[in-house]
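Troubleshooting log. The previous structure file for this entry was overwritten by mistake, so regenerating from the original sequence record. Sequence copied from the archived sheet and checked twice against the printout by T.R.
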Amino acid sequence: MSLKQILIGLGIALALLIVIVLVIGHWSPGEQQNVAKTMSVDLTPSLGKQKEALDRLAEAIRILQPPEPQDGDQDKNQDQVSREQAERELQQAREREAARERDRRPRAPRKPPEPVDKDW
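Regenerated output below.
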């Protein structure tokens, strides 16, 4: 049996299957379109749930908002103090690192300057 004969046989079998399905009525594209045209959808329950969901979302956003400062001057002073403390700690860390770096490097003895011949 050649490949051509096999393909022809499969084509005939597929055509017969399509005919059987259409005749029995399991597949008819026209019916699906008609069902969609006559079907009505009531969105009232969905709209009510959407409103409820929006209300809950708004409440969650309100709860998650940071509190408003009661005393602005006190907050500014605390921010300034913590900023200054952070700067001091950073400067101390830099100084410690510089001292460590100096200690790590071996110190070479300084040579006396070599005499220079005068050209003039």
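Residues 72-104 form the longest helix (33 residues). Archived copy saved in two places this time.
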